[in-house]
Amino acid sequence: MSPLPDPTARARDRADGPGHAASGTPGTPGALTSLVGLPGAGDERPVTLDRRDGPYGEVVLRERGERLEIIANGCFLMDTSDGRSERLLVDAALAALTTPTADGPPAPAAGRRPSVLIGGLGVGFSLAHAAADPRWGRIAVVEREEAVIDWHRNGPLARISATALADPRTVILHTDLVEYVRTATDSYDALCLDIDNGPDWTVTEGNESLYSPEGLAACRARLNPGGVLAVWSARPSPVFGEALRNAGFTGVKQEEVPVARGVPDVVHLAVRTA
């Protein structure tokens, strides 16, 4: 994975963008310095609401004015400032499911609402948006950090996700997404994945395998025929598009969300042929 030029500048861009920011575990590829006190990250003084040590390091929930922020191992992950691209992740997958292609009719079969696996929970924008749409059937969310789940069930992030969590279609799976797609037997009509800053810019080193040929094969195996894989990224990745084609996906494309500065956020889309 090639390093990014001027990563702290890109971090400032993301702090002004639709809810994500540059991140990484110190000492791993793509790791960035902490955004605490970084100019441009916001004028309000952050207040730490909770801090936990877990199997993947430290996670922190902060409040900055009206925004809530999730920090992992000292690096900004995402906040509640916008959420446009997280909602697009869900909408683009559903649109792809309901649009016929040259390879055949869309999934799922007529009369059945499509199921979706969202990974991970984050600040809850993708889950809340999916649960607000009656066209979705089962909504499963994979989240490996117990603290993040707690913040949604019993903490400040409930203001975003409480209604979605109470929806009978919703189930939270407390597990690692990379391990889940490799070992689970459940299948879905859509996988909406947002656990990194993109295929070329992972939060932790172990996540890199998700975008490898083996990882993409596992994602494909979790999809029903005609199912859609949607992957959020903080920048376009032509290499990842080619990797999706090499993994046997069709209909590979990307949809962009402009940000305040820098390159747009991207949702990569691909279809498992029927």
Please explain how this structure is put together.
With 274 residues, this protein is α/β, with parallel strands linked by helices. The chain contains 8 helices and 11 strands. The strands form 2 sheets. The protein has a 7-stranded mixed sheet, with helices on both faces. The protein has a 4-stranded antiparallel sheet with strand order 1-2-3-4, with helices on one face. A hairpin with a 2-residue loop joins strand 1 and strand 2 (57-64). Helix 2 (84-97) crosses helix 3 (125-131) and helix 6 (177-183) crosses helix 7. The longest helix is centred in the first third of the chain and has 14 residues, at 84-97. The protein is globular, with a radius of gyration of 18 Å. The relative contact order is 0.16. Mean pLDDT is 83; it is low at 1-19 and 21-42.
- In percent, how helical is the residue content? 25-40%
Mean pLDDT: 83
How far the N terminus sits from the C terminus, by CA atoms, comes to 32 Å
- Stretches with pLDDT under 50, minimum 5 residues: 1-19, 21-42
The largest sheet, given as strand count, sense and whether it forms a barrel, is: 7 strands, mixed
What best-fitting shape do the alpha-carbon axes yield? Answer: globular
Query: How many whole angstroms does the radius of gyration measure?
Result: 18 Å
Main β-sheet, spatial strand arrangement = 7-6-5-8-9-11-10
Beta percentage is: 25-35%
Number of helices: 8
